[in-house]
C-alpha cells in the first residue's frame, strides 16, 4: 500500500494527515482520499478535476506529468506528496 502526504500549509486549512492508499494512478489514489475527506478536493483539483495551478504532486521524486487527468502510474510502494505552492515576498 502506498502513502499520500500533504504539506503543513494544506493541513492548516483542512485536516489531511498522511494516509495509506491503493490505486494504479494518482487520480485513483486521490479519489480514495477525497471519498473520506470531501472538503480536501477543492484545495487540490478544480471543478473539472484538473490539478489546481498552485498545487504540485510528486510520486516519489518525480513531479506528475499529467496535470489534467492525473494518470501518472502509482505502484504499491510509492509515496505521493501533495504540495501547495506559496507566493509572496
Write up this protein.
The protein is α+β, with helices and mostly antiparallel strands and 89 residues long. It has a single domain (2-84), classed as Beta-grasp domain (Ubiquitin-like (UB roll), Roll), CATH 3.10.20.30. The chain contains 3 helices and 5 strands. It has a 5-stranded mixed sheet with strand order 2-1-5-3-4. Helix 2 (26-36) crosses helix 3. The chain starts with a strand and ends in a 5-residue tail after the last strand. The model has no long low-confidence stretch (mean pLDDT 93).
Structure at a glance:
This protein has one domain (2-84): Ubiquitin-like (UB roll), CATH 3.10.20. It contains three helices and five strands, in the order E-H-E-H-H-E-E-E. The chain has helices spanning 8-13, 26-36, 38-44, and strands at residues 2-6, 19-21, 55-59, 62-63, 79-84.
Globular, elongated, flat, extended or rod-shaped: what is the shape? Answer: globular
Helix residue percentage: 25-40%
**What is the radius of gyration?**
12 Å
Count the domains: 1
Order of helices and strands: EHEHHEEE
In DSSP terms, counting alpha (H) and pi (I) runs of 4 or more, how many helices? 3
Q: Per CATH, which architecture? A: Roll
What is the topology, as strand order, of the major beta sheet?
2-1-5-3-4
The major β-sheet equals: 5 strands, mixed
Name of the CATH superfamily: Beta-grasp domain
Mean pLDDT: 93
Distance between the termini: 39 Å
Amino acid at each position: 500500500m502506498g502513502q499520500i502526504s500533504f504539506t503543513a500549509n494544506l493541513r492548516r486549512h483542512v485536516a489531511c494527515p498522511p494516509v495509506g492508499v491503493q490505486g494504479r494512478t494518482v487520480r485513483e489514489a486521490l479519489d480514495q482520499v477525497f471519498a473520506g475527506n470531501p472538503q480536501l478536493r477543492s484545495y487540490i483539483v478544480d471543478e473539472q478535476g484538473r490539478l489546481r495551478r498552485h498545487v504540485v504532486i510528486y510520486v516519489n521524486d518525480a513531479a506528475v506529468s499529467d496535470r489534467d487527468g492525473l494518470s501518472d502510474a502509482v505502484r504499491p510502494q510509492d509515496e505521493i506528496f501533495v504540495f501547495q505552492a506559496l507566493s509572496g515576498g
